[in-house]
Design goal:
The structure holds 2 protein chains of 2 kinds. By secondary structure, chain A is an all-alpha fold. Chain A has 17 helices and no strands. Classes of the chains: A mainly alpha, B alpha/beta. Chain A binds chain B through residues 47, 51-52, 55, 59, 82-83, 86-93, 96, 256, and chain B through 182-185, 187-188, 191-192, 260, 266, 283-288.
């Protein structure tokens, strides 16, 4: 009986202690929540107060930044980051970008310079992002000092982005030296933001950059859809690496420009079905009368993908369906006839 | 005279004053709906020769037939109850077109070898009233038109007198919905829209952060012209879903849709246009160009 009485006493003490801990935790969480809410409300209030001023300065031809726009503490910097990031993501006017650059160099560089020195990785990363986005070129040397420290892969990529804007020579040099192994996706994020003259500099050293970077350059040129880059792409079509050749054909197709068709017609007879597939897509950009002899070969290709693409491409061109009907009458390849019939049926 | 009667058959419509009252209401409603002005021309004739009572019918009928032969099928000649007075209503026309019409008629009459004009040596006086809103009553218009005719006759021969009382268009309310999650961009767009001022329309702007909020609101169910500026990616019903829903509405032609997006692939753009987007804006975009585009879109509604 005594034993049970003792146990109940201990138990109730444990419960009380636990309850107290829980209460303390609850109070702590409530205080945190309240603080967060106060901060959100303060940020919202500040945002409302200065938004119009920023619109006036950036869009309404305000020549000088109003003193009220200059942040006085970290909270205000956080709100300004939000405003400037939104402008940069959504609005492209060059004069707006110039004003953001000038304001950031003058009023935000000191803060981000300090952030770069912090031990906290996320603070350094945030600073690197903002230096790149807001174009704070005054901090270029501080960024270069980062290289000497133990930099993470993400920091390196961000540093290269910064160099690509303010010091293209260093950027290209680093890409060639390859201080860290970047993936193709990472290189693409970098190359996509290159300005035109910087991209042209990169093309000059195409053979020296790592293979994933070469892939990303080719893809980027395709996405740009500019006729100026097509001769460069066509010039590489005899590259020894098959993946490069396939990417080139894809990029030429995506650019929408075909300057010298004869440079890739031989891919109709390639031993790789991927090359034959890409050239089938490309031929669709040319007049059917000039290309139908090639399509006849591709319609009878041994690969299902190539036959399918050839039938689809011809079927989507003006007068293509009539050509496919005529093809069925003359072809002896039953797989080709089957594919063409399938496409014709879908089309109708 | 025979020549005039012959041409009657290929001309526009002829009404008397009583019939014209009802027909005028239809034309007036059309002015309001299509936001396009019409113009009423008042005409009278006089001469150095004194008209006899028996001339009245001959002149009235002759000129009525002549005017009917000169108008388009969309226009109307009204023979007013007072002798020697007519009104010609030119639909979808402004003062300038009415002036050109009258000059053509005046020159034609002056050069004409038709008996009607040769015998009586007729001189025209005229009044022109452009109608840009639906508030005017036919009786009031008639009074003003006849006053203009009196003034015109006093001023001289072949004079055109203008009535400006009904020219002004009613200000139209245009609804604008901005559907965008980013509050800062929403405010930039709102401020930009406030820069577009006009005396022809008033913008009623509302902001939504989610597609569903917009669809659930009764804001989209009225017959106002409705400009929508929305992002393609939105929480709770994205932009393309909102677009599909709008284009299924019976009043969908009232909506002018600008879609903002970060996607710039050929396929995405074509798909958006095929789905019913009117303007596809790739982010980041030039805000001044967008402002000019929006302004042009709105102005075109009142050409």
């Amino acid at each position: 009986m005594g034993m049970i009485g003792l146990s109940i006493e201990i138990l109730s003490r444990i419960i009380i202690v636990n309850l107290l801990i829980l209460m303390c935790l609850a109070i702590y969480v409530i205080i945190l929540h309240k603080r967060k809410n106060i901060q959100i409300r303060r940020d919202e209030k500040y945002l409302k107060e200065i938004q119009h001023g920023w619109y006036h300065y950036l869009i309404n031809k305000g020549e000088r930044a109003d003193k009220r726009l200059v942040p006085e503490n970290e909270d205000e910097i956080r709100v300004i980051e939000k405003i400037l990031s939104s402008y940069l993501a959504n609005i492209s006017n060059p004069d707006i970008h110039k004003k953001i650059r000038s304001f950031s160099n003058q009023y935000l560089s000191h803060y981000y310079g300090d952030q770069l020195k912090r031990r906290k990785w996320s603070a350094r990363m945030n600073a690197l992002y903002r230096i790149s986005d807001f174009q704070i070129d005054i901090l270029l040397d501080d960024c270069k000092k980062q290289e000497l420290k133990k930099c993470s892969k993400e920091e390196w990529l961000q540093l290269l982005k910064i160099y690509s804007k303010f010091d293209i020579n260093s950027c290209i040099e680093k890409i060639i030296i390859e201080p860290v192994l970047f993936s193709e996706h990472e290189y693409r994020k970098l190359v996509l933001n290159f300005e035109q003259d910087h991209l042209e500099r990169l093309l000059q050293v195409f053979d020296e950059v790592p293979r994933p970077c070469q892939f990303s350059i080719i893809d980027t040129l395709g996405l740009k859809r500019e006729t100026d880059y097509v001769p460069f792409l066509e010039g590489l079509l005899h590259h020894e690496e098959a993946e490069i050749r396939i990417r080139l054909l894809k990029a030429i197709y995506e650019s929408g420009w075909i300057i010298n068709p004869e440079t890739y017609l031989h891919f109709v007879h390639s031993s790789l079905w991927e090359e034959r597939l890409m050239v089938t897509k490309l031929l669709g950009r040319l007049p059917l009368d000039e290309t139908f002899s090639c399509f006849k070969i591709l319609l009878e290709d041994e690969s299902w993908w190539v036959r399918n693409q050839a039938a689809k491409t011809v079927g989507s061109i003006k007068n293509g369906k009539e050509k496919l009907q005529a093809f069925i009458q003359t072809s002896r390849d039953k797989f080709a006839i089957e594919m063409v019939n399938e496409i014709l049926k879908k089309g109708s | 005279m025979d020549k005039i009667r012959e041409s009657n058959q290929s001309g526009g419509m002829l009404l008397d004053e009583r019939q014209a009252v009802r027909f005028f209401d239809v034309l007036k409603a059309n002015v309001e709906r299509s936001k396009t002005s019409m113009t009423a021309i008042f005409l009278t004739v006089h001469s150095q020769t004194i008209f006899r009572k028996e001339d009245e019918d001959f002149i009235d009928q002759g000129i009525t037939s002549y005017l009917v032969s000169k108008i388009r099928q969309t226009d109307v000649v009204v023979k007013l109850s007072k002798p020697y007075q007519w009104a010609v209503i030119l639909s979808q026309s402004k003062e300038e077109e009415a002036k050109a019409f009258l000059e053509r008629i005046f020159n034609d009459v002056k050069d004409s070898d038709d008996r009607l004009f040769l015998i009586y040596d007729l001189i025209f006086s005229s009044g022109v009233a452009e109608i840009g809103n639906g508030d005017v009553q036919f009786e009031d218009l008639l009074d003003k038109g006849q006053q203009a005719l009196a003034n015109s006759s006093r001023t001289g021969d072949w004079v055109i007198e203008y009535v400006i009382d009904y020219k002004e268009k009613n200000m139209e309310e245009v609804k604008v919905s901005i559907i965008e999650e980013d509050e800062i961009l929403t405010n930039i767009l709102t401020a930009t829209l406030h820069n577009i001022s006009s005396d022809q329309f008033q913008l009623l702007i509302r902001m939504f952060q989610e597609g569903e909020d917009f669809l659930q609101s009764d804001w989209s169910s009225t017959s106002h012209t409705h400009l929508i500026i929305m992002n393609d990616i939105l929480p709770r019903k994205n932009g393309l879903e909102v677009l599909h829903m709008i284009r299924k509405l019976p009043n969908n032609k009232r909506f002018i849709i600008y879609m903002m997006t970060k996607r710039n692939s050929e396929e995405d753009i074509i798909y958006a246009y095929e789905s019913g987007v009117d303007h596809y804006i790739i982010k980041p975009f030039n805000i001044r160009l967008l402002e000019a585009q929006l302004k042009r879109t709105l102005e075109r509604l009142w050409v």
